[in-house]
Design brief:
Shape: globular
Number of helices: 3
Order of helices and strands: HHH
CATH architecture of the domain at 33-91: Orthogonal Bundle
Largest sheet: none
Structural class: mainly alpha
CATH class of the domain at 33-91: Mainly Alpha
Helix content: 25-40%
Length: about 90
Amino acid sequence: MTRDGDSTSDPGPAASTSGRRAGPGANASANPPTLTALTVAQAAKVLSAAGGRRITEDMLRADIDDGAPANADGTLNLVHYTAWLVREVPRGD
């Protein structure tokens, strides 16, 4: 609403400032990766950079095969994966 009380220039909550639309049909590759939905390749890259040692896609896939959590679409949530790793350390896996 403007100062004079005219609400006709107010675009309302449906207006988009980014020019992009989300939802069905949106290009998923246009969205930046998030820590809750990384591809195995992205997760390997992030973990390698953060951990100071090389983490490969094969290592992550082996963990998934051993019960590490993965999202329904095959991506990894690094928060859930890290929690799984913490639980696995005492087991020596």
